[in-house]
Design goal:
single chain, alpha/beta, globular, 3 helices, six-stranded mixed beta sheet, 6 strands, about 110 residues
């Protein structure tokens, strides 16, 4: 599964159960985020034992995008069938604070910021 826009790319690898986000997600509203939400919902429905969210290449994420990720984390937490790991980068300013907030939504979430 893959979604590509002008400045971003979101793809899911079935073998590694990893969602990778790259570029800059500056979509204007939830309607524009709908394809990404659908991809994340499909991943959650598969209920793999581990879901990895690799955000190291995501340079910018607006508040609508943070909302999408928050809802995804909450959905995975509620299902109680998958654990989640988020990979972030210290080199991307928004990630340190925002990703720690995601960990508050799912305390068992593994957060690796390198």
């Amino acid at each position: 599964m893959e979604i590509e826009g002008d400045n971003y790319r979101v793809c899911y690898d079935d073998e590694t159960t990893t969602v990778k986000c790259k570029g800059s997600l500056r979509l204007s509203d939830m309607e524009e985020y709908k394809p990404i939400v659908n991809l994340l919902n499909e991943v959650a429905q598969q209920q793999p034992s581990l879901i990895t969210l690799d955000l190291r290449g995501l340079e910018f994420l607006n508040s609508s995008g943070i909302n999408v990720l928050s809802k995804f984390v909450i959905r995975v937490r509620k299902q109680k069938t998958s654990t989640m790991k988020i990979l972030g980068s210290k080199m991307v300013p928004w990630q340190l604070k925002s990703l720690k907030n995601l960990q508050r939504l799912m305390p068992k979430l593994q957060l690796e910021i390198e």
